[in-house]
Amino acid sequence: MALAAELKAAGAHILCIKDMAGLCKPAAAATLVKALKEETGLPIHFHTHDTSGIAAASVLAAIEAGADAVDAAMDSLSGLTSQPNLGAIAEALRNSARDTLLDGAALRGISTYWEHVRNLYGGFEADFRSGASEVYSHEIPGGQYTNLRQQARSMGIDARWPEVAATYAKVNEMFGDIIKVTPTSKVVGDLTLMMITGGISAEDVLSPDKEIAFPDSVVSFFRGDIGQPHGGFPAPLQKKVLKGAAPLKVRPGAEMADVDLAALKAEAEHKIGRKISDQELSSYTMYPAVFADYAAERRAYGNVANVPSRAFFYGMEAGDEISIEIERGKTLIVRFLALGEADESGMRTVFFELNGQPRSVRIQDLGADAALPPNRVANASNGFELGAPMPGTVVSVVAEAGQKVLRGDTLLAIEAMKMETAVTAERDGTITEMIAEVGMEVNAKDLLAVFAD
């Protein structure tokens, strides 16, 4: 109530209860909405997710208590980690004092459209089909729940989901039970996945004597780059993560240097080799590496957004024909004919017709990499061998064979699912062999470097 009063005094015109994990139960929703209305007199907006399966009850309780706006999803896109069912809520309120006046037939028609669209994205659906009351213990936000499960699957640990969920709860507790919404929820998730894939326990993370190569997002969080959490940072863990560096004590933007947009635009255009729009400049300013990757893909393949969704996501079968409108009034008709066998270099020939004319092109079969010899694995009992803390791609290497390093020195960086982690030396010594190289794909515990005293 004190926070609500502060927000009103600061000039807020409406208050939103943002329950991103779907933790607010019906009785709590009713109590909170009623109290906020009485305390502030402001309109109340209630937002929740249906991860547990009972969010519609919480929404109806909030409405009964006087909520002025609630969030819901079209029937075919509702439930689970999405919002509760709009059509059902509208019907529950029909002919009542709080009737939404929404047309049921229109809602069902729109829902049918999105049902067909959703089918195109079936390959990206999470593999759970029911409500999960476990959300009350791990508190993973709805917007992150499906992403985290997909990340776990990509890292080969999807069968260990209960362990992932339990570790997420432990990381949240270690961080001080922070408010978990983008980007703070990602920070919790990043450390969770690193702990699971690297076999790191909560005791290891908290121990001042155990060297941990924390993900960059965790370092950034504890440095204060995304703000000061309510209740502050856990001091001992913050000290360990920052390794003696001073954290910010103010709003991050207050200490950021001004950006020379003209110079930054020139830098971006030089890097990607073409002129960019102001919208693209915004992307580059916020996510330079991601934008550079996007620009490289666009340069190599063109605007693949013009490819029909089903062909883009799942590819074409022999005999399939699609139309691609590359610009207004210019449409290409593509018929896929056949795919040749891979040769010794892993190249295949693709046979197709373009507007009725036979064509062929040779492409690299990425699956051919499976024939390459496997990476060496670090011996866990050998303190002179450094293993990868997580699966991913080596994106930079700053140390080399023959170099003397100290414990904690950065050696290289690994990226997985846009999470970049600096790998540091676990001991003082000289690098006798640097196995890691930029672009190398590694699994957890793959050998990266060998040390000598």
Could you describe the 3D structure shown?
By secondary structure, the protein is α+β, with helices and mostly antiparallel strands. The protein folds into five domains: 123 residues, TIM Barrel, CATH 3.20.20.70; 116 residues, Cyclin A, domain 1, CATH 1.10.472; 42 residues, Arc Repressor Mutant, subunit A (Orthogonal Bundle), CATH 1.10.10; 65 residues, pyruvate carboxylase f1077a mutant domain (pyruvate carboxylase f1077a mutant fold); 79 residues, OB fold (Dihydrolipoamide Acetyltransferase, E2P) (Beta Barrel), CATH 2.40.50. The strands form four sheets. The chain has a four-stranded antiparallel sheet with strand order 4-5-6-7, with no helix packed on it. Strands 8-15-13-10 form a four-stranded antiparallel sheet, with no helix packed on it. A hairpin with a 2-residue loop joins strand 11 and strand 12. Helix 2 packs parallel to helix 3 and helix 14 crosses helix 15. The longest helix is centred in the first third of the chain and has 17 residues. The N and C termini lie far apart (60 Å).
